[in-house]
Amino acid sequence: MSRRGSDRAPTRKSRRELAAMSAAGRIIAELLDLLEGKAVPGVSTGELDEIAEQFIRERRGKPSFKGLYDYPATICCAPNDVVVHSIPSRQSVLREGDILGVDVGVEVDGLHADGTRTFAIGEISERARRLMDATREALAKGIEQAVEGATVEGISRTVESHVVAAGYSVVRDLTGHGIGRRVHEAPSVPNFVDHQVFPHDYGVRLQRGMTLAIEPMVAEGGPRVVQDADGWTYRTADGKLSAHFEHTVVITRGAARILTVAG
Questions:
Q1: What is the DSSP letter of 60?
Q2: Could you give the domains of the chain?
Q3: N-term to C-term CA, the chain
Q4: What is the pTM assigned to this prediction?
Q5: Confidence at residue 7, expressed as pLDDT on a 0 to 100 scale
């Protein structure tokens, strides 16, 4: 779930806390693997949400998003021009050629992890595939910059540069964030560089044990988004496609360790 981080200082996690976050991250990875196979034409996003909640609870996790800021579901869905946070519904049925972002958070022993993938529903267009590939690549390049001693700006600048070079736009209204005891912690992790918007977060220096949710949200057209009347759904203002990929990572002595992967 994409929000700006809290105003509190970033926190470094203990081994015990990281173990719980790793457990949560494994549940997310396994769940997204499962949902990718279930997300086919004719299935509703409401059905996917039911599968997700059952899967998480069977593994003794808790859905991080359900009840967070009064959000009513386990997963956030983002079909086609939706950027983030659309509420799953039995009336929202997937069709051949759609793309669908699925964002999910899991809590284990009071610690959270957060992850997102965009799925292809059946056969999709080449333009949709290119957008998804560029977004996935932007996430990988951003994670490469998440090293001890670097700053948040290095992540932001790298993501933005890759997205723009690929011919797309970075959504600016929503960002990645710190994560741990709360789903949204400091610092914000923008996917662009604008010091007037984020005068403090860019300069945050990454330290071993810090945990971040890095999540490029990329628009096929312009970066402007609009919010639906439900107060949750953000979609591109021009109606063009959007893709979203996210990992929770921990800063280490070397390369960042991705927590939202299967064990």
A1: T
A2: 15-258 (3.90.230.10)
A3: 23
A4: 0.96
A5: 66
